[in-house]
Amino acid sequence: MSIKTSVPLFIRAVQTVAVCLLAAALSACAGRPESGSLENLRQTDARQTDARPSDARPGSQPPLAAMLRGLPPIPMDSARGATVLQTLTLTGSQASPRSAGAVNDGSNLSLVAPAGGFEYGMFEFTPPAGTLQALVFTMDVSSPGSAWIAIANYERLAWDFKGPYPTLAGAKAFLNLNNGNYKSPGGRVYGLALAYDSTTASVQQVQLTVDDGQTPSFTVSGTVTNSAGSVALPGVNLSLQPGGHVAQSGIDGSFSFEDIEAGDYTLTPSLTGFTFAPPNRDVTVSNADVSGQNFVGTLQGGGPPFTISGKIMDGDTPLAGVTVMVPFEQLDTVTDAQGNYSFEILNEIEDFRVVPLLSGFSFDPPKAFLTGDHDQTQDFTATAYTIPDTVSYATHMKPLVFEPVCMNCHNSAYTGAERHGAHPDVNWDTYGGTDLTFKQHGNSRAQSGSMPPFGFHATINLTDSQKALFQKWEDGAFQP
Ligand code: HEC
After folding, report:
1. pLDDT tens string 282-298
2. Are 478 and 406 within 8 A, CB to CB?
3. Which ligand 1 atom minimizes the distance to the CA of 437?
4. Beta-ladder partners of 255
5. pTM of the entire structure?
6. Domains in the chain, start-ordered, CATH in brackets?
7. What is the DSSP letter of 288?
8. Ligand 1, pocket residues at CB < 6 Å
9. Nearest CA, atom 6, ligand 1
10. In terms of Cα–Cα distance, which of 126, 125, 131, 127 is closest to 212?
């Protein structure tokens, strides 16, 4: 610490304290930052019978806890999130200098004031650049209760005091330090704890909080292990979205993303030949580093059952309630609140397709072709649509209706059993190839619910918005 700057100040301070404490006219002494005389303070602080110093009052909470629960959370209008404070902590034993009778008991500073006398300890902080917020003493006070805290005020060149604190355990604080000049010329902050007249005070710690003004950023980290032998799995690519952050697991399987701002993210591992449990993780970064985002990788190629899983996002929002179908396998499931789906393939299937369906949404890809011999992840991106005034084959019907549903059978690329009985002349991958009558029949059967044929309804069906598109297409004379 800077003895040169602090000693004269300190001597002046001790003199002030002594004068204050011994003077008959207490009102002559310095008050706390935001108020006047010590007499005022005595009156104010005499009312503090709970562990809430008077300067906490502007931020006091209304009495009804139920009311607080009913209020909306404080609005967040930027990615910055809440202010991040840096906290500097000194233990009571780090008081220096301290009065001759003050005892460092190893962790606490013990101040046992004789009758009519006092003991003190001083705490020096070297804060980082930024705005000072609060100086908080964790200090227990015993009866009769005349303990004080102080902070060096460089505007007045004197200590600002708060107290006397009655018999009271816990925190005593100077708040709103940004309203005053509490940094020494050398940029330090000095606090003082003091017990007077037969009062015993035990200072456990003193903390200075500083808002460093930086956009807070955090670390997201975890480890990837190989399910075979539970050893580290290096070389796994991890992506954290949104933001396009990428990382790779190291030789010990660990990975970390630095400089991540507060927000909601999806973390997804990938490595050719491996599947991962879980397939992805929702990560919420609020005001702290996030660790333990672990994954277990499994080399593909074991026997069934195989797990097919994935996530469906509408922009940054997980989309719940999407029916995910495997046509011809009588398998279907629905995405959960996190947009995740998964199902098991009990027997090896050579290949199959996965089709997401939800009224009013299109999906990218509209359907996915997978091979049924290993665990796999298949994500989809969803986009909401409304029924346009003019429906065309190319813009609407093919991508939104035929591709996901009808072309599973009516596809000119398919022959024989692949067509599942669909007429060879009815192919929805070509506009001109399917005759007008079939287009009309296609719609009437779509509306009546008899196409796709009944036997396949369990695993592939039209949504209401797909039916509405079909009707609009016919109403507009089947635009190409
Ligand atoms: C699971 C396979 C499958 C799917 C998917 C499928 N169809 Fe068919 N489709 C058939 C079979 C089988 C027939 C012949 C038996 C019948 O008519 O029910 C057929 C016949 C047809 C016919 C000719 C019979 C008629 O009524 O004129 C049309 C038109 C047709 N489908 C339209 C569609 C449309 C439009 C879709 C998408 C909404 C669709 N199909 C989806 C299997 C399928």
Report:
1. 999 987 899 999 999 98
2. no
3. 27
4. 222
5. 0.47
6. 3-58+94-211 (2.60.120), 215-299 (2.60.40.10), 301-353+367-384 (2.60.40.10), 385-480 (no CATH)
7. S
8. 405-406, 408-410, 420-423, 426, 438, 441-442, 445-446, 451-453, 456, 460, 462
9. 452
10. 131
